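Spend some time on this chain, tokens included, and walk me through the fold:

. . .
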Amino acid sequence: MEEKNYQLYIQILKEELVPAMGCTEPIALAYCASKCCDVLDDEIIKANVQVSGNIIKNVKSVVVPNTGGLKGIASSVAAGVVAGITENVLEVIANVTADQKQEMAKWLQQTPIDISPLESECALDICVELIGKHHQAKVRIAGFHTNIVYIEKDGEVLFEMGVVASSDQSLTDRSLLNIQDIYEFASQVKIEDVKDILQRQIDYNYAIACEGLSNDWGACVGQILLKTYGDDIKVKAKAYAAAGSDARMSGCEMPVIINSGSGNQGMTASLPVIVYAKELDKTSEELYRALVVSNLCTIHQKTGIGRLSAYCGAVSAGIGAGCGIAYLLGGDYETICHTMVNGLAIVSGIVCDGAKPSCAGKIAASVDAGILGYYMYKNGCEFKDGEGLVLKGVENTIRNIGKLSRDGMKETDKEIIKMMCR
């Protein structure tokens, strides 16, 4: 692999596999509010919040961690204003005291908050305006969860980069990703170049999965899978991924390592591979290389889809996990290609109706499809060119899925948001 591309692949992993506490959309709101509060530096008397439809969808039903069980846009803003530490970015509300939780509730009662939809070409778009006794400030995030594109104080623009150019263009170009190079990179990468990134993912995500299996969080999907279907390795792979989501979607205050801006995707891409490696006594190096495959295959799919859409991100991550498991079990490039295509043919089209406890069920279904896609190929079976969205060549099928979710499901997304806001 060319040295330039090698370094770019390392950089993509560094950019994507970062820690976050809580569902990333409410946390992005808290981060935006915290930054705005820093800029304002005044006693707040009113807040105006504008958000895109996908933010409404993904904040509505999920518990914001460290708030005492609060949900919603206003609660996310309150958390950022009262307890946010801006420099902690997606862990902005990781250090909240009991007194601050009480202060959040008081702030929500005393501070008028106007929340309105924001028409934007970006699916992820947040604008927080805070009005104080002597000053006013405005901060806007667009494109991805930490991408501040506008800062204003007292009518003076302090920073502006333009929303049109805000998507992921400040990040390393993901268009260079392809399954062939992902496979070669995973096989060639020097372990010391990825060890710290991936070990943190293993430690964080496995810990929250164990929490989800040990205690009653959300709808207990992970626990129910094990109780109902037993502890076969394939069931465990689904159960651990689902259990992490059970905990995270219901306010668990443990951090996770995300993928493509999502904790659910970060857990789904990693935990099934981690479970397989533990159950089969694979070496740390074998696990690291398999996680490179699963994470990059997930990022590759998400590149054509976008951070937020009507297409469930768990599908991309579940299929990515299937590819990682295929690699862990000795699969070559062709095996990974067929695992990807088979898995996508099974579950593509699952819709995203926001972050909430049922995400755990979608994660389980997606991981199952990824694993089934692998075992289909091992048994000489496959979905073929021209069958539905499947095209000859793995990259063509991935592009088809991207077009489906990015273009074909735009109206679906609008209808979902309308239904959820009634």
